[in-house]
Amino acid sequence: MKSTPRRVSVAPMMDWTDRHCRSLHRFISRHTWLYTEMVTTGALLHGDVPRHLAFTPAEAPVALQLGGSEPDDLARAAKLGEQWGYDEINLNCGCPSERVQRGAFGACLMNEPQLVADCVKAMRDVVSVPVTVKHRIGVDTVEDYAFVRDFVGTIAEAGCEVFIVHARNAILKGLSPKENREIPPLKYDYAYQLKRDFPQLEIVINGGIKTLDEVEQHLQHVDGVMLGREAYHNPYVLADVDARFYGATGAALTREEVEARLIEYCASEIARGTYLGAIVRHALGLYRGVAGARGWRRILSDSRKLAKADLAIFDEAREYLRVPDEILE
């Protein structure tokens, strides 16, 4: 398998993996590869670039995921991403939402591999950072492995060397994005076969992976593993990543130490005018599995308390930890 900084990554997730979420993940793991939410080319070329692209150096390494299907627009957006300091430009060929389809990008691009190849080439021509593609294994009723094999082969000819494979089909009509993450069956063997067929490429697997033991099993077959919702709802799952998959020797921060860093971060962000709840919402799963976590979450979800921007809310929430939930009830 390739030695890659993407051995473990956190998926780009709309409305979730913003800079506050990434900052939290970075407190827990120094090496996990992080992604932005998908940013459309239109948002960058006609909108507020700093709002979409600004991030703190402490978050790095971070990859920018773009949504689009016009090679020229993607090239301009990719160039912006490199200028703002991103370590990778990733093209979304996996999102099945109807809103994304109306923009003629996301998973429907899998039906146009030559267009994707043209997009990749246009971006590679203007940036020096890696240009990668995140995709599904099929679209609608196309179940044949040859479909994804030919898709990857066509884009690899355009110079793409890294493919992130969400190992499910995308159903473009009739299923919501949430259902598309749950109903089409996972076929990890398709991703494994891609690695066997294209040993020179870096293949990263994504979809339904919840534990670091599962990560280890997948790494027997592919180069990297991308965690999605598990890393969001249970962020402390990342605590052992650095030692286990990157050879780090320092001890991971405890949950309490992560919380202390988070409080410092909240203080600096509040001073910039950030709403406390915009940060804290990403940390509600920090104590998942710890007695009293439900009470901790409840306090930190209270909009009236959050509106006061008083960091004493963390002291109040912490009083619930290690109190068995049945006592709280």
Describe this structure in a few short sentences:
Keywords: Flavoprotein, FMN, NADP, Oxidoreductase, RNA-binding, tRNA processing, tRNA-binding. This protein is an alpha/beta fold and 329 residues long.
Any chance you could write out the topology, listing elements then pairs?
Layout: E1 8-10, H1 19-28, E2 33-40, H2 41-46, H3 49-53, E3 62-67, H4 71-83, E4 88-93, H5 98-102, H6 113-124, E5 131-135, E6 138-139, H7 145-157, E7 162-166, E8 169-170, H8 177-180, H9 188-197, E9 202-206, H10 212-218, E10 224-227, H11 229-233, H12 241-246, H13 255-271, H14 276-280, H15 293-300, H16 303-307, H17 312-318, H18 325-328
Parallel strand pairs: 1-2, 1-10, 2-3, 3-4, 4-5, 5-7, 6-8, 7-9, 9-10
Helix pairs in contact: 1-13, 4-6, 6-7, 15-17
Characterization of this structure:
This protein is an alpha/beta fold and 329 residues long. The protein has 2 domains: 8-246, TIM Barrel, CATH 3.20.20.70; 255-328, Four Helix Bundle (Hemerythrin (Met), subunit A). The chain contains 18 helices and 10 strands. It has helices spanning 19-28, 41-46, 49-53, 71-83, 98-102, 113-124, 145-157, 177-180, 188-197, 212-218, 229-233, 241-246, 255-271, 276-280, 293-300, 303-307, 312-318, 325-328, and strands spanning 8-10, 33-40, 62-67, 88-93, 131-135, 138-139, 162-166, 169-170, 202-206, 224-227. An 8-stranded parallel barrel has the order 1-2-3-4-5-7-9-10, surrounded by 4 helices. Strand 1 (8-10), helix 1 (19-28) and strand 2 form a beta-alpha-beta unit. Helix 1 packs antiparallel against helix 13, helix 4 (71-83) runs parallel beside helix 6 (113-124) and helix 6 packs parallel to helix 7. The termini are far apart. The model has no long low-confidence stretch (mean pLDDT 94). InterPro entries: Aldolase_TIM, DUS-like_FMN-bd, DUS_fam, DusA, tRNA_hU_synthase_CS. The record marks 92, 178, 181, 294, 297 as: Interacts with tRNA.
